[in-house]
Design goal:
Pathway: Amino-acid biosynthesis; L-histidine biosynthesis; L-histidine from 5-phospho-alpha-D-ribose 1-diphosphate: step 1/9. By secondary structure, the chain is of the alpha/beta class. The chain contains nine helices and eleven strands. The chain has a six-stranded mixed β-sheet. The chain binds adenosine monophosphate.
């Protein structure tokens, strides 16, 4: 696409749904719903603006390399990615949840997580988990999983999990309980640093429109 066009990286599901009102405030309307389409590139009501639909964990990578000019990614994903090459101008306060440690109900976490003890942790977020337990002086064996973390303590794969909790319903349905809060998570706008300069006139009004919605909702 030409220099006067914009590519926006988004993931399907929660983030896409919660991004639609922000896009609308910036006058951008997707031509199709990604949930109903298999297309990975979706046009908009602007000839020069398109959306690319990628996995949530891949959004920072597309933006970092300039394959997308900007995107929306959870803070969880950004912490694990490291944020290289990304400008993060705005907390959009969408897809809000908490990164928590959770265990089977009845597991004596207080006793098992004394400084110097050793725990097996299943998680999609190895860096966040390692840093959290290092700060507590607890040794951990991290088992990297890509989904359904809640299963791990139930079948003896791990003592605990580090995962996102929103309503708490998933933990409850699986007889797990949250025992420690690590960090609050929400989605951020991430902009390619070079694109912010070369396409400033296109990107800046969109950032301003997004900021207006965030401010109005927080008021
Ligand atoms: P809940 O049952 O509402 O607490 O949601 C928990 C499940 O949804 C877990 O499997 C989480 O990994 C996932 N989840 C919750 N919030 C988010 C979020 N903001 N982004 C991605 N996954 C999430």
């Amino acid at each position: 696409m030409s220099d006067q066009s914009l590519t926006i990286a988004l993931s399907k599901g929660r983030i896409f749904e919660e991004t639609l009102p922000l896009l609308a405030a910036a006058g951008i309307v997707p031509a199709e719903e990604p949930e109903k389409s298999r297309k990975l590139i979706i046009g908009t009501n602007h000839d020069n603006i398109r959306l690319v639909i990628v996995r949530a964990t891949d959004v920072p990578t597309y933006v970092q390399y300039g394959a997308a000019d900007f995107g929306i990614a959870g803070k969880d994903v950004l912490i694990e990615h490291g944020g290289d090459g990304l400008y993060q101008p705005l907390d959009l306060q969408i897809a809000q949840c908490r990164m928590m440690v959770a265990v089977r109900k009845g597991f004596d976490y207080a006793a098992a997580s004394q400084p110097g003890s050793r725990l097996r942790i299943a998680t999609k977020y190895p860096d966040i988990a390692a840093e959290h337990f290092a700060a507590k002086g607890v040794h951990v064996d991290i088992i990297k999983l890509y989904g359904s973390m809640e299963l791990a303590p139930l079948v003896g794969l791990s003592d605990a999990i580090v995962d996102l909790v929103s309503t708490g319903n998933t933990l409850k349905a699986n007889d797990l309980e949250a025992v420690e809060h690590i960090v609050d998570i929400s989605s951020r706008l991430v902009v390619n640093k070079a694109a912010l300069k070369t396409k400033h006139a296109l990107i800046e009004p969109i950032i301003r429109a997004f900021a207006g919605v965030v401010q109005a909702e927080g008021a």
